[in-house]
Amino acid sequence: MDYVEIMVRHGELSTKGKNRMRFINQLRRNIEHVLAPYPEVKVRSDRDRTHVYLNGTDYQPIAEALRHIFGIQAFSPSYKVEKDLEALKEAVQTIMTGLYREGMTFKITTKRSDHTFDWDSQELNQLLGGAVFEALPEIKVQMKVPDVNLKVEIRDDAAYLSHEEIKGAGGLPVGTSGRGMLMLSGGIDSPVAGYLALKRGVEIEAVHFASPPYTSPGSLQKAQDLARKLTKFGGNIQFIEVPFTEIQEEIKEKAPESYLMTLTRRFMLRITDRIREERKGLVIVNGESLGQVASQTLESMQAINAVTTTPIVRPVVTMDKLEIIELAQAIDTFELSIQPFEDCCTIFAPDRPKTNPKIKNVEQYEARLDVEGLIERAVAGIKVTEITPKAELDEVDELIEGLL
Ligand code: ATP
Ligand code: MG
Questions:
Q1: What number of CA atoms fall less than 13 Å from residue 148's CA on the CB side?
Q2: 3-state secondary structure of 175
Q3: Could you tell me where the beta strands, DSSP code E, fall in 304-365?
Q4: Going by C-beta distance under 8 Å and a sequence separation of 6 or more, which residues neighbour residue 185?
Q5: Cβ neighbours of residue 214 under 8 Å, at least 6 residues apart?
Q6: Phi first, then psi: what are they for 94, rounded to 5°?
Q7: I need a labelling partner for 189 at 20 to 30 A (CA). Which of 87, 161, 275, 291 fits?
Q8: Which residues line ligand 1 (CB under 6 A)?
Q9: Mean pLDDT on 147-167
Q10: pLDDT over 90 percentage in the chain
Q11: What are the tens digits of pLDDT across the range 51-65?
């Protein structure tokens, strides 16, 4: 027997009052995006559930994909059976025989939404339970916590049988909290920060600063690949590449080395904020972690943050590096992040950046630069690409290609 449908239980939605349908529709769209590599699969939502119809697609990769999508509390794959007592008996026998091991307990829980069906739930529990005993005389019934709770739902079109419930990722459907701009480098921290923002329903657009020819196409590709890894939690991500070469060269030429980093970060933040405004984002998300490097002391954060009043969400700010790495491994970005590609910041990084930059000095050095012109040219030169999820199979193919 093959699964035909997966019933998805919504996460924290019930607390959201009249926004409920908005949440559910967003979740449905996200599921459709993530499952786009499987064109046969169809998704439909009602107030209580979302239904994923497999239409012949393998169950395993779809289940694997659903496990990552935020806003899903749990899901159950189900079999579809003709609404006929003999067919139902045969189905429960086949399913239970497949699951049986010694000492197993079970119960049958029938729900009937089609009230014209010849038997009511109580009678069906008895009849189908009896059929299971016929096939497996040793099996025991257990009402409280059975090993297998075989659920039978009599709907209008057919009967649906399920016995597993798989835990989902929880969180909120991506997009239900509004949009944020994720400053995405090729490092370990910012993809994790992005993941955590996605978890609470923030739709992220990835802003990446590239300084060709100092940074290579490989380094850009790496950032895009990281963004693609993040699509599995809620769907497509807009990737915004910002040309940063001119700004870095200008700063290098006109400001003292100890302030390069602070000035560079201030430009990044201003540009990200400008892009955010144009694209109707509400917040900026970055991967800063307190004390990790010179740019991440509180004094530095203050000097850098001073260019905007836009809220900056720093999901990993209080996490230890090892904790961040653990998460990076769990979301499968770590191996990509540690690939040795230059980042625009590392190339121009001074040996001894200031850990306590003074705003007064910063402003004095910036007065030597055409700040507004530099920002405008960078913003005018952005390139936006839509990053879409990939089927698991594609990834395997690529791995194999990589090995050849
Ligand atoms: P990450 O691992 O995220 O690169 P990091 O520990 O290397 O972080 P920094 O290099 O100081 O820290 O960067 C701090 C934050 O600034 C990053 O987490 C990221 O949000 C942002 N950032 C750094 N470089 C870039 C870049 N090239 N493009 C976009 N954002 C960047
Ligand atoms: Mg970095």
A1: 23
A2: coil
A3: 312-313
A4: 208, 209, 223, 287, 343, 345
A5: 245, 248, 342, 344, 347, 348
A6: -65, -45
A7: 275
A8: 183-185, 187-190, 207-209, 286-288, 292-293, 295-296, 343-345
A9: 95
A10: 84
A11: 999 999 999 999 999
343, two tokens: 């980042």
**CATH architecture, domain defined by 179-399:** 3-Layer(aba) Sandwich (3.40)
Q: Where are the domains of the chain?
A: 5-169, 179-399
Ligand in closest contact with the CA of 223: 1
Q: Which architecture does CATH list for 5-169?
A: 2-Layer Sandwich (3.30)
The pLDDT confidence band at residue 343, using thresholds 50, 70 and 90, is confident
For strands 140-141 and 202-210, give the pairing.
Answer: unpaired
Residue written as token pair 């990834």? 395
Order of strands, edge to edge, in the sheet holding 312-313?
312-313, 283-285, 178-183, 202-210, 237-243, 383-387
Evaluate if residue 392 carries a pLDDT over 90: no
Question: Hey, which of 181, 182, 185 would you mutate to test ligand 1's pocket, going by the most ligand atoms within 8 Å of its Cβ?
Answer: 185
| pLDDT mean over 324-343 | 94
CA–centroid distance, 190 to ligand 2, in Å, is 8
